[in-house]
Amino acid sequence: MTYDLWYWDGIPGRGEFVRLALEAGGIAYRECAREPGIGEDALVKDMLSERKHPPFAPPYLVAGKMVLAQTANILLFLGEKHGLAPGGAAERLWVNQLQLTIADMVTEAHDTHHPISASDYYEDQKKEAARRARGFRDERIPKFLGYFERVLAGADAWLAAGERWSYADLSLFYLIDGLLHAFPRRMCSVAAQFPKVMALHRRVAHLPELQSYFSSGRRLPFADGIFRHYPELDGE
């Protein structure tokens, strides 16, 4: 089966978590909104079409008759279906728990530049963004990365303590990539505190399964979306 992945064109966004799993797993898929002659108007039309289980927002994955939305939900499905997570129920739920924790941090990273309203421009909430970003840099980055460092201390190379990566490892890689883009000064000053997290980031960056994707035009650079670099929001 070839899956249909729907996400906004032009930004990696939350769709990148799903892309990394599909690419690393060698799973056939089409990124529909990026198909020639399709575009985002078709995404909106498809998303609003009548379905028994409609998605609230992209990303969503069409798998035969199923339509799966919410990043962690999509990855839970792919993990079980394609062996991107351990086989036992308890371990699959553990990987899902890690993914949901990553999602929590992703939301907080986004809210540093849109703390009041996602519908308003950053320029309309710069004062509030500066305060939110300071708290995120000083308190939340160390707290979240400290948690993942602690998980890796008991798991060795990969989060799920297996000999192979899971989709949560790919997602943590993308989260760290986003933080390095959005908060390069802060990440430079704290990286040494989290050597296992940074080592995992390097391991995923060199996974043979991802090299073709990384060197292709399919991998989009950071742009307006979750992870944005505003120098005034960064700091040591």
TrEMBL record:
This is Glutathione S-transferase. It comes from the Bacteria. PROSITE patterns: GST_CTER, GST_NTER. One of its GO terms (molecular function) is glutathione transferase activity. GO terms for biological process: glutathione metabolic process. Residues 1-86 form the GST N-terminal domain. InterPro entries: Glutathione-S-Trfase_C-like (IPR010987), Glutathione-S-Trfase_C_sf (IPR036282), Glutathione_S-Trfase_N (IPR004045), GST_C (IPR004046), GST_superfamily (IPR050213), Thioredoxin-like_sf (IPR036249). Transmembrane segments: none annotated. Residues 88-222 form the GST C-terminal domain. CDD domains: GST_C_Sigma_like, GST_N_Sigma_like. It comes from Achromobacter pulmonis.
